[in-house]
Design goal:
This protein is α/β, with parallel strands linked by helices and 312 residues long. It has one domain: Rossmann fold (3-Layer(aba) Sandwich). The protein contains eleven helices and 15 strands. Bound molecules: NADP nicotinamide-adenine-dinucleotide phosphate (NAP). The site of NADP nicotinamide-adenine-dinucleotide phosphate has 24 residues, from strand 5 and strand 8.
């Protein structure tokens, strides 16, 4: 199958493209710069120059594809997140970008599946309760409203509920050796320091990046239209996560920076968001698709990050 992908050069995009190509798919990837074009060619995919916000330019390349994966994003580094306009482009990519892609996909007639990687951080604090898309309360402050808008565009792709599929996978936070945030946390931990995002007993749901990619593959094969949570099997509390990170860098404990330091980097809305307890379950997705994560929890995950970063 021919698949149109945005964000092919991203942390998620790279393993997704690799896995789909290994499975025989032909990948057409949106390109917006010479550097990114070169990366796409090296990956063995076909780069196409198109404007994410222009339906006509997208249509030219989407026609003939069987699926569209919208994996592009523009989240600035944590140090820039306090600036008032930090998330404007990201919001545009999620809302206007998804809308334009859906319009182009509908016009093409050939596209039967549209997939968008959402986020499960939008759930209200659930304490120690398990949370899932079918019944969790949504509490989305402004940085998350564009991802809800994207989900609505994806649902609109599939209004008939028969011929086409619109799939949103709400992922936990990505981690892995290719993630800048994971490498930063590992480097700090090697120096014996950690900055906790949430209170000790708050659950935070993660997903190993390569497992997010296998989940996309599984969704393309076996999922119906809908919204699914995709996280690792055993969400850790903040305390358990710090202990796992400490073990991975062979330290007895990490010195915790005070959480008020988050004020230097995050707006009050983002601080409230990252501090929520979200113990999310991927059970429904696993039951429907048969997908299993390779990394079940952060004990395994952080050891792998440490090993892969050391080997790189
Ligand atoms: N990171 C997480 O913890 C997390 C968790 C849950 C869900 N997600 C979702 O997963 C998706 C992928 O995230 P990621 O971490 O892989 O992102 P990433 O590594 O930052 O990659 C971003 C990709 O988007 C492309 N891009 C940036 N601006 C663009 C624009 N204006 N037009 C077209 N393409 C543009 C980039 O291409 P260039 O090479 O040109 O820069 C790059 O390929 C996003 O939808 C994100 O919200 C992420």
């Amino acid at each position: 199958m021919k698949i149109f992908v945005t964000g092919a050069t991203g942390v998620l995009g790279r393993p997704v493209v690799r896995m789909l190509m290994d499975d025989g798919a032909e990948i057409v990837a949106l390109s917006r710069s010479a550097a990114n074009r070169e990366s796409i060619v090296k990956m063995g995919a076909t780069p196409v120059d198109a404007d994410l916000f222009d339906v006509e330019s997208l249509s030219r390349h989407i026609t003939g594809c069987g699926a569209v994966l919208h994996l592009a994003t523009s989240i600035p580094p944590v140090s820039k997140l306090r600036s008032a306009d930090a998330l404007i482009m990201n919001d545009r990519i999620r809302d206007a970008g998804t809308k334009a892609l859906v319009e182009a996909a509908l016009a093409s007639q050939s596209v039967k599946t549209f997939l968008y990687p959402g986020i499960c951080f939008m759930y209200a604090d659930g304490g120690a309760r398990w949370l899932a898309a079918d019944d969790a309360e949504i509490r989305a402050p402004s940085p998350l409203r564009s991802t809800l808008a994207a989900e609505r565009h994806v649902a609109a792709f599939d209004e008939s509920k028969t011929v086409r599929r619109g799939i949103t996978l709400r992922f936990g936070a990505f981690y892995g050796a290719t993630s800048r945030d994971s490498r930063d946390m590992l480097n700090m931990a090697r120096k014996g320091v950690v900055l906790p995002m949430a209170p000790d007993d708050a659950y935070r749901s993660f997903i190993w990046v390569d497992d997010a990619a296998t989940a996309i593959h599984a969704a393309l094969e076996n999922a119906d239209s809908g919204i699914y949570d995709v996280v690792e099997d055993v969400p850790y509390t903040q305390r358990e996560a710090i202990e796992a990170l400490a073990r991975a860098v062979r330290r007895k404990r990490l010195w915790r920076l005070p959480r008020w330091m988050l004020r230097l980097a995050l707006t009050p809305e983002l601080r409230e968001l990252v501090g929520r307890s979200q113990r999310v379950s991927a059970k429904r997705f696993k039951d429907i698709t048969g997908w299993q994560p390779d990394v079940r929890d952060q004990t395994d995950g952080w050891v792998r990050v440490a090993r892969e970063v050391a080997g790189a």
